[in-house]
Each structure stands twice: as C-alpha cells, then as structure tokens.
Amino acid sequence: MEDLRIRTGPGLPRGLVIPAAELHEQFVRSSGPGGQSVNTTDSRVQLRLDLAACSALTDDQRRRALCALEPRLAGTELIVDAAEHRSQFRNRKAARERMAELLRQAMAPPVQRRPTKPTRGSQRRRLQAKKHRGRIKADRSRPGRDA
C-alpha cells in the first residue's frame, strides 16, 4: 500500500502526505450484482484513518478536521467505504480518492462573510413590493359608505 497524497488547496498550501502505515484497509464482500464471483471475492473496501493519532497533521489541522468531519467519525476514526466497482483494485483507488477529498475539504479554513449594505436599488424595489402588496390587501376590504 502506498502513502495517501492530498493535493494543495485552501489550508494546505503544500499539500499533505499521510503515511501508508497509518491507513488501515479492510476488504469485505460487496452486495449487489456481480455475477458468479460476487459471493467469493472481497471487493468492497473500508479505509480507516485515526485522525487523533495521525502524525502527518498539525494540531490546527487535526482540530479543524475533527470539527468538520464530526458527523462522519466513529470516535476519532474516519471510515470511508467504496463498493461501486467490481474490482478490489478500483474500489481501493475510489476509497483513497474519497478520503483525500474529504480531508482536503475539512482542512479548508471557514470562509468569512463580509457584511455588506443592501444597494439603493434593492431597497427601493423592496419598498415598492411592500406598497404593492399592501394595495392588494386593501382592495380586499369592504368598500366604504362614500363609494
């Protein structure tokens, strides 16, 4: 098994390499169609990485990854499954790509929104829409005695 390489991106200016020794692969039988060999080959791949014990991550990256991936974690372990291909080799590749993309997105710092004022045109349109809606509602009422 080879190291997991994560390409550069926000929060990862030089990319990241996770040693193969920290990744754990497990092969199980895949469900679904697959012909006669479906019950004999273990083509489904489970790739596991313990984020708390990963030596490739800095403390800041580890904290960010644990927060961002919290719903997907089992304790501090990130588990990725791949069973969409019939071949174990292709499923291994798919699981590695999926894990790399998850970690890359998790390492990205949160984007801060810069508050802006509404434009003059948008304020004018909003007020016109409110007046129009008020006129529609006023037309629903009973006519007065003057009419």
Automatic annotation (TrEMBL):
<feature type="compositionally biased region" description="Basic and acidic residues">
    <location>
        <begin position="136"/>
        <end position="147"/>
    </location>
</feature>
<dbReference type="GO" id="GO:0043022">
    <property type="term" value="F:ribosome binding"/>
</dbReference>
<dbReference type="InterPro" id="IPR045853">
    <property type="entry name" value="Pep_chain_release_fac_I_sf"/>
</dbReference>
<feature type="compositionally biased region" description="Basic residues">
    <location>
        <begin position="114"/>
        <end position="135"/>
    </location>
</feature>
<dbReference type="Pfam" id="PF00472">
    <property type="entry name" value="RF-1"/>
</dbReference>
<feature type="region of interest" description="Disordered">
    <location>
        <begin position="103"/>
        <end position="147"/>
    </location>
</feature>
<protein>
    <submittedName>
        <fullName>Translation release factor</fullName>
    </submittedName>
</protein>
<comment type="similarity">
    <text>Belongs to the prokaryotic/mitochondrial release factor family.</text>
</comment>
<dbReference type="InterPro" id="IPR000352">
    <property type="entry name" value="Pep_chain_release_fac_I"/>
</dbReference>
<dbReference type="GO" id="GO:0003747">
    <property type="term" value="F:translation release factor activity"/>
</dbReference>
<dbReference type="GO" id="GO:0072344">
    <property type="term" value="P:rescue of stalled ribosome"/>
</dbReference>
<feature type="domain" description="Prokaryotic-type class I peptide chain release factors">
    <location>
        <begin position="17"/>
        <end position="140"/>
    </location>
</feature>
<dbReference type="GO" id="GO:0004045">
    <property type="term" value="F:peptidyl-tRNA hydrolase activity"/>
</dbReference>
